[in-house]
Design brief:
231 residues; mainly alpha; 3-stranded mixed β-sheet; 5 strands; globular
Length: 231
């Protein structure tokens, strides 16, 4: 990796394509700190790899949708793709159907599967995100929600695409509806974002109707776009 701090601030950074994952992390930390403005002087010297990774994820989480330099996106994509490869990509073909796994005779058991794990590892046609009504992902640094996990693994381009969709729509996403975006650095091709009902106290029939609508909207979106495998 070849970079100087002054050059980084000017946006003139030369990246060594043979850089290691650790070097990619340091490069991205510098780039996202400078991009944030507020945290450009954050001292990460002496931090271990895991701590630096959490800081980078936090900076990505709080970043508003806006353009980023092409070279930074290129390194981000290399970094995230390497991460998911190291976690282990799970092909849909390796997951047994309900009929195969449980010898079940339930209707359509050959077309359904139950799998427990990290959804960002699945090489499905699409994975479903439990989105918020703004459809911009979770802005809480390193939050444990699925919305945060998917956006963090996909990269900042996902938030930008969601922002464009919301600008075109002109209003927040309705509960029970669904939107399709690209998957970017996820092993899936697409992400289907749906806003589920927020249950305050007891579950009402209206909550159930809205949740059913989430499922049907996701399935209709998959059908409309010719997607066979949805998680």
């Amino acid at each position: 990796m070849k970079k100087r701090k002054a050059d980084l601030q000017k946006g003139a950074v030369e990246w060594d394509a043979n850089g290691t994952q650790e070097e990619r992390l340091d490069f991205l930390l510098d780039a996202f700190k400078h991009d944030s403005g507020q945290y450009q002087n954050l001292n990460t010297e002496g931090c271990g790899y895991d701590e630096k990774r959490r800081i980078l994820r936090s900076l990505m989480n709080i970043r508003l949708p806006k353009p980023m330099r092409r070279e930074v996106l290129k390194v981000q994509d290399e970094f995230l793709k390497k991460e998911v490869y190291e976690k282990g990509i799970v092909p849909i073909s390796e997951i047994l159907s309900v009929k195969e796994a449980y010898r079940s005779q339930c209707p359509h058991g050959e077309r359904m599967a139950v799998w427990q794990g990290d959804i960002t590892r699945l090489a499905a046609d699409a994975i479903v995100n439990a989105a918020n009504s703004r459809l911009l992902g979770c802005f809480v640094p390193c939050h444990g929600c699925i919305d945060n996990a998917i956006h963090s693994a996909a990269g900042i381009q996902l938030r930008e695409e969601c922002s464009r969709l919301m600008e075109q729509q002109g209003y927040e996403e309705e509960t029970g509806k669904a939107k399709l975006t690209n998957g970017y650095n996820l092993p899936c091709r697409y992400v289907i974002h749906t806003v589920g009902p927020i249950v305050r106290e007891r579950v009402t029939e209206r909550d159930c109707e809205l949740l059913r609508s989430c499922y049907s909207s996701c399935m209709e979106t998959a059908k409309k776009n010719g997607l066979r495998f949805i998680a």
